[in-house]
Amino acid sequence: MAKVEIEIERCKGCGLCVEVCPEQVLEIGREINLSGYQYVTVVQAEACIGCCRCAEMCPDTALAVWR
Fold it and tell me: What is the pTM of this model?
């Protein structure tokens, strides 16, 4: 099983990671970080296959995937 970690304060909520995730593990949350952005959250951690597409797509390197 893989694990996605999100650095909340680096995330700008662009949604690119959400779009490229083949298993719909991520979504834009309702909470706001200190910069005023709604950041990405993990909603289906058990579905993550560890493909790393989300981390590769993130322009702010706010995601890390651990296998």
Answer: 0.92
